[in-house]
Amino acid sequence: MKMYTTRGDTGQTDLLGERVTKDDPRIDLLGSLDEATSAIGLGRAQLQVKELGEILIQTQHDLYQIMAELAFTDTTRPDSLRLAADRVEWLEAETDRLAASVTLPREFVMPGETVSGAALDVARTVVRRAERQLVALPHKRKPVNPEILRYLNRLSSLLFMTARVEDLRDNTPVRLAKPGS
Questions:
Q1: Measured at the alpha carbon of residue 156, what is the angle toward residues 110 and 165, in degrees to the nearest 5?
Q2: pTM (two decimals)
């Protein structure tokens, strides 16, 4: 099986139901979501707190479902691919559970105390970029499932908490972003 088709050599690619240019905002968003799931995978591969692994795997599955939903045009998308509100509720419950296990300062925390925590912080920032790209789609007459926006917003919070759980696993104090704090 060839790993390339040459169909993209002219700067176009396929959404499911439409051929578009590679600079289409939906393609850009799909790229950010793909980058996010890879960054989550990088953080997951380095975890010391193994219980976080299953949570992160679930988020990766959810991101793949979101990418599938966004890859379809509105007229070809099966209803079974729509992200449901219960996935947002699951994220909220997991984030709350993790937040209860750590004490955070009121100041901004500087990423980088652990490799896994730093990787998860990178994933968080990529998710935030994807969230901004998603918000722009309706302005370009590209409707989106509002649950996806809610999901990405909560996912960044979950990733922040998983990074802090990793950073604080050995009771190492967090480094604050403001010097002298």
A1: 55
A2: 0.88
